[in-house]
Structure formats: structure tokens, C-alpha cells
Design goal:
This protein has about 300 residues and is of the alpha/beta class. About 35% of the residues lie in helices and about 25% in strands. The strands form four sheets. Strands 1, 2, 3, 4, 10, 14, 15 and 16 form an eight-stranded mixed β-sheet that branches. β7 and β8 (about 145-150) form a beta hairpin. The longest helix has 17 residues, at about 30-45. Bound molecules: S-adenosyl-L-homocysteine (SAH). The site of S-adenosyl-L-homocysteine has 19 residues, from α1 and α2.
């Protein structure tokens, strides 16, 4: 999974209609704007500490960052921008959207002495998982010239890679001050289940088809993520469902303001809002977990 995704992201921009999948910030500017507003608000309530940085993990095309930074600027916050991104193709797109950003290969390279305002949307789901059947790790093998899983049964998933990223971000935020908003699809409680999925051209595909040419992800275990963050010394709020969270942050008012400014786009804006919020679309499967320094306030909407 790690090798496939490294190749996959290094060789293409997978986002949007012409690609394989579409993410919330690519659906509507409202998503990034509300995240920016929530970060500016938590920073203000923390006493506007000096030197705070905007950090995004796996920023895609830089769309979320550019929308969030615009909203932060109108709230009086203009932080330096740090992107953790390994794909050269996506770094190029990010540079077009946010020219003054600084890029890093890993979280370890982020500045160590300033508060961090961290965003990760659909980042953890792309990090590799392990699957186990009756306590034995499931492997992919070449059987009769084709790729196949070596065992079936009730599956339990773990992700040392996600745990490591979560612990690192939570540890940094706890020590340096700040907050992290983790948004992804996943479940509230740890439990068995096979959630590995492959997506190509906006449709589910066979898991072992075309290695490195389709998006491999799995659902995030938010209970586990919260436990790892707490063990690293951070405070945690959530997870909460994306739809109600965006509604508490004011997406209805934002949609109305955008529609008033561009009446001919009213139906399109409403359709985007519904896609982000409705429980039968992205509103319920997608969740938000907030990780913060113990002395920082809880971000809005939780
Ligand atoms: N957050 C964006 C993109 C999500 S796709 C959005 O919401 O649109 C996943 C992103 O994570 C891509 O930018 C991909 O290049 C990046 N990524 C995947 N694995 C990574 C890794 N191990 N280290 C850094 N970035 C990674």
C-alpha cells in the first residue's frame, strides 16, 4: 500500500473531475474558509500567541490552504505556511495556489518553537495499513501469476504509519501550543472490518488491479487516533460528523452570503453545501477530530 501510493501520488494530480476522486475543498470554497475561520478563532481565544504557523499535511492542490488563509487574513491572522508533501506534481500545484509556502518531506522538519495550526484533510486515509485475520497478518502474494491475498476471514486493521503521524503531530501541538483539525472518512469506535478500498476514475476498483495506478485508502479509526493523540500529551475533542460540524461553524450563512453575491450560482452553491453536509453524502461518513495543546481552548463546532 505504501509503495503503491508513493508511486501513485508522485506521478499525477489525482484530484477533480478528470482524475480519480474529489475532496471537500475541491467541491466548495466554503470548506476551507470555515476551517480557516475556526483556526483564526481558536488562535484568538488562545490569546493570539506570536509566531503561529499554518501547517497542512498532504495539501493536494493547495485549494483548502488558499481558502483557509483568505478567511484567516480577514480575521487578522497571516501565518507563515508550511506544507508536508512528498509528491513533486502536487507540490507544483500547491506553489501555484500558495506561492509563499515552505515545503517539508516530513513532520519532523516543521519548526519546533512556535504554535502550530494544523490541517489534515483526507491525509490519514492514504497512509498504509496492515490487515490481520485471526491474529495473523494478511499478505499479498503472487499466485498463478496474479496478485492475491493469502488469507480471508474477519479482518482487523491497524496502521502503525497513522499512529506515528498522529503521535508526532499531537506531541508537537502539546509542546509548542496550537491545534490540529483532522478530517477524514472513518468510524467513531474501534472494531473489526475490511475497509481497504481502491478508487479509479471516481469508481471503486479491484484492490489488486493496476498497482500504483489507483487510489488505495482505508477508513480512519478515530477512537484509536484520539487515544494515540492523548497518549502523546494532547487534549482531544470529537470525533464529530462533518455535516453538523460545518453547520455549527455557519455554512448556511456562508452559502447565503455567496449566493447573494452571485445569484445565478445559487443552485450550484446549495448543491455543494448539500454534498458536504447531507448524511447520505459526505456529512456523516466524514468526521472531524480536534487535537489541541492542553492549555489551548477547544476549536469551535465541537
Ligand atoms: N488534502 C487534500 C489532498 C488529499 S489526497 C485535499 O483535501 O484535497 C492526499 C494528499 O496527501 C496528497 O497531497 C498526497 O500527495 C499526500 N500524501 C500522501 N502520502 C503522503 C506522505 N506519506 N507524506 C506526505 N504527503 C503524502
Amino acid at each position: 500500500m505504501e509503495a503503491c501510493n508513493t508511486y501513485y501520488y508522485a506521478t499525477r494530480d489525482p484530484l477533480g473531475a478528470a482524475g480519480d476522486f474529489t475532496t471537500a475543498p475541491e467541491i466548495s470554497q466554503m470548506f476551507g474558509e470555515l476551517i480557516g475561520a475556526a483556526l483564526a478563532d481558536v488562535w484568538a481565544r488562545a490569546g493570539q500567541p506570536r509566531g503561529a504557523r499554518y501547517v497542512e499535511l498532504g495539501p493536494g492542490r493547495g485549494t483548502l490552504a488558499s481558502d483557509a488563509l483568505r478567511a484567516m487574513r480577514s480575521a487578522g491572522l497571516q501565518p507563515p505556511v508550511h506544507f508536508v508533501e512528498t509528491s513533486p506534481v502536487l507540490r507544483q500545484a500547491q506553489a501555484a495556489a500558495v506561492p509563499h509556502a515552505q515545503w517539508h518531506d516530513s513532520i519532523a522538519d516543521l519548526p519546533t518553537d512556535v504554535p502550530l495550526l494544523v490541517v489534515a484533510n483526507e491525509f490519514l486515509d492514504a497512509l498504509p495499513i496492515r490487515q490481520h485475520v485471526a491474529g495473523i497478518e494478511r499478505h499479498v502474494e503472487v499466485i498463478g501469476g496474479a496478485l492475491a491475498f493469502d488469507r480471508d476471514g474477519e479482518i482487523v486493521e491497524t496502521s502503525p504509519a497513522r499512529d506515528a503521524v498522529t503521535a508526532e503531530i499531537a506531541g508537537r501541538v502539546a509542546k509548542q501550543g496550537g491545534a490540529a483539525l483532522i478530517v477524514d472518512y472513518g468510524h467513531t469506535a474501534t472494531g473489526p472490518g475490511d475497509t481497504l478500498q481502491a478508487v479509479r476514475g471516481h469508481h471503486f476498483a479491484g484492490l489488486l488491479d493496476k498497482p500504483g495506478e489507483q487510489d488505495l485508502t482505508s477508513h480512519v479509526d478515530f477512537q484509536r487516533t484520539a487515544e494515540v493523540a492523548r497518549s502523546a500529551g494532547a487534549a482531544v475533542a470529537g470525533p464529530v460528523e462533518q455535516g453538523p460540524w460545518l453547520e455549527r461553524l455557519g455554512i448556511l450563512a456562508r452559502a447565503r452570503a455567496l449566493a447573494n453575491a452571485a445569484p445565478d450560482r445559487t443552485a450550484e452553491i446549495e448543491a455543494c453545501r448539500a454534498r458536504l453536509c447531507r448524511p447520505d453524502q459526505m456529512g456523516s461518513l466524514f468526521k472531524l477530530l480536534a487535537i489541541r495543546a492542553p492549555e489551548w481552548p477547544t476549536p469551535a463546532g465541537l
